[in-house]
Amino acid sequence: MKKVILALILMMGLVPFASAAQLDAAILANENMITPSFEFLRVVYIEYPNDGGIADALRGQKQTISFEANTTTSGMSEFVAQLNENLQSIPSNAVITDTKIKYQATLQGNQNNAVIEYKLQVIPTIQNHVLSQDTEKSIVDANWRGIFVSNPVPIQTEYGQFDINNPRSALDVMVPDVSEQLSDVSIISIPLIDASGIMNLPLHKWHSLFDNTAIIPGAVEYKFTGKYVITHYSMGECNIGIGTCEDRKWVEDVNLDKKYTVRIIESRDDATIAIEGYADSSKVDGVDVFHTNLKSLVSQSPEEPGFPATIMYGMAGLAAVGAVAMLVISDRKLKNDKNEGQTGVDPAHLKAYQTSNSSGGYKTNRGEAYLVPNERPKTAI
Question: Model-level pTM?
Fold first, then answer.
C-alpha cells in the first residue's frame, strides 16, 4: 500500500498544474497609465491508454511554437477593440490604448498521453483608470482586472493566420492530422483569454499589506518613486472566508479507432496588485475602486462588509467608562480602609511558637502564632 501511495505522489509531481489566469500589476502615483501583465495558462491532456492511431501520431512528439506581437502586427488593433468592448460591459472606465502579447505552446507526447501546455501573456496599456485625484488622494478603477474575450482573436504570425484565443490553433500547426480527428471535441476550443475569476472575488476579500521598503532610495530602480509606502493586494490562499479553491476540470471522450479522452485541469485564478501609497477598497457607482492616500492610512469605506467603525468606537468608549468606574471604586475602598485602621484579630490575643526544633528541622525568622483559647475576641453586638 505504501508503494502505491508513493507512486501516486511521484506521478502527481510530474503533472503540470497552473492557475488559469495570473495578474501582476503596479499602480504608481501621479501616473496616467498602467501596464499590467495577464498570463493565461492551460494544460490539455490527450489520453490514449488503448493505443490507436492518435497514440501513434503523438507518442514521442516534442514541439514548441512561440511568437510575439504588438500594435504593428496585423489583427492587434481589432484585439484592442474587443478588449475595450469587454471593459465597457463589465463595466469599467478604463481604456486600453495598446497591447503586446507573447505566445507559447509546447507539445510533449508520452507513453499513455500527450500534454499540451499553453502560455499567453497579454500586456495592455491602460489609461483613464484614475477616476479622481488631488495632491495626495485618488480613486482608482479596479474593474479592468477581469478582462474576458469570447470571440476569435486572429492575428498574422510566422505560422500564418493564428487565433491566439483558441487552443486548437496550436494543434493545427503542430499536429494537423490529430487536430482534424479531434475536431468534434469542443473543450479544446475553450477561450484562453478569461480573467473573470479575478473579477469574481470582491476586493474586500483580498489580502492587503503595507510595505515600507519602497521608501528606501533603492526602490527607484524598480520604478517606484522612493517617497511612499506600497500597498500590496493579493487574492491570497483558499480559506472559508474567500471560498474553497477547487480545480476546474473538463473531460470529453471521443470514439474513433479507439476510445480517447481529452482532459483539461486548471487551478484558481491568481492576482497581485501593488499600489503606491496607502490603499483601501470600496465600490463607486457599481465599480470596484481603490482609495489611495500617499501620506496617511485610508479609513475603511462604510460600503465594505466588515466590522462597523461605529461599533468599534462604541466598544472602546464602554471600555473607557468601565476603567474609570473601576478606578473610582478602588479609590473609595482604599480611603475607607485608611479611615477604619487595621482590621482583623488583635495581636494581643495571639501567642507565638517555634515551628521546629527537631534534628533536620527547617526554621525561619518568621515563625507562627495561634489564638489563645481563653482570650478569644468577643463578637461585637
Answer: 0.71
